[in-house]
Amino acid sequence: MLTSIARLLCLLAAIVIMEVPTALLQSYAWASMLNQRVPEQGLSEALASTFDGEHPCEHCLTVQEIQNTQQDAGEETPLPPSFQLGNFKLTQLNNTELRLPPPPRAIRIPIHFEHVLHATDFSPQVPTPPPRVA
Where are the beta strands (DSSP E) in 80-126? Predict the structure, then answer.
């Protein structure tokens, strides 16, 4: 039960991070624009005027405002250079090189095969009489 709740929360977080609600609103805007414009302009002109960007509807303007506020919110909130938590001080790594330890020189993989089975190890006939379980 707890794992299914955790999976659901992870799925919802992924949906929000990938901006799926904004994409759904944009898809709805395009569909409503096509629904309104096809009877008046015909299919080819309605497709051209819907996707050219020069004739946005109210929903398209709403999507643009949402995207602009998300971009502005991301640019205006810089991360703090350090953060104090109790007796621990966490600092950000700005333009620092992380040095990794060198890889091992050799890796030995033990082989524990005593006997390799071949096709000739199996008999094509059933033993007569069949073995009994004790």
Answer: 82-85, 88-91
- Per-block mean pLDDT, blocks of 10 residues, the chain (134 long): 89 83 87 91 88 87 86 59 55 64 72 63 69 73
Q: Where are the domains of the chain?
A: 19-75
For residue 67, the SS3 value is helix
For residues 20 and 15, give the distance between their C-alpha atoms in angstroms, rounded to a whole number. Answer: 6
User: Quick one: which of 66, 60, 77, 75 has its CA closest to 16?
Assistant: 66
Structure token digits, residue 78: 């810089």
Amino acid present at 5 = I
For residue 16, the model assigns a pLDDT of: 80
In whole angstroms, give the CA distance from residue 84 to residue 45. Answer: 60
List Cα–Cα distances, 119 to 12, 25, 56, 85, in angstroms: 52, 62, 71, 65
